[in-house]
Design a protein that fits this description.
Elements lengths: L8 E2 L13 E3 L4 E4 L13 E3 L4 E2 L15 E3 L7 E2 L2 H9 L4 E4 L4 E2 L4 E2 L2
Parallel strand pairs: 1-3, 2-4, 3-5, 4-6, 6-8, 7-9, 8-10
Length: 116
């Protein structure tokens, strides 16, 4: 699903959360805000998540660690804060997660590529 550069604002649309067969979510470069929904972790077929360059708030939800097929997740420039859940870092060691980006000045993350 390609939603990049669509001037979307507000929370991530709830309709996305019902797309159980979704393998890629590109919603970068918008004005999305609010927390990243925890039920995004229920889209277990997701392999690629691009949420960078948005205005999200809060921390990265640990429920995203349920995305065991995840290969890439970009979260940089998205105003997130706190700690990257260790369960997500475990995806790099135990599953197929290859690329994980975040703003390391705002999100404490030992397993992320930093984009500051």
């Amino acid at each position: 699903l390609f939603l990049t550069w669509n001037n979307l604002n507000g929370p991530l649309p709830e309709t996305i959360r019902g797309l159980k067969s979704l393998e890629m979510l590109r919603a970068a470069d918008n004005e999305l805000s609010g927390p990243i929904p925890t039920d995004l972790g229920k889209l277990t077929k997701l392999e690629y998540v691009y949420l960078e360059d948005n205005n999200f708030s809060g921390e990265v939800p640990p429920e995203l660690a349920e995305l065991t097929k995840l290969k890439t997740m970009h979260l940089h420039n998205s105003r997130l804060s706190g700690n990257m859940p260790p369960e997500i870092c475990d995806l790099k060691d135990q599953f197929s997660l290859i690329e994980l980006t975040a703003d390391c000045k705002e999100v404490i993350c030992d397993c992320c590529a930093c984009d500051n």
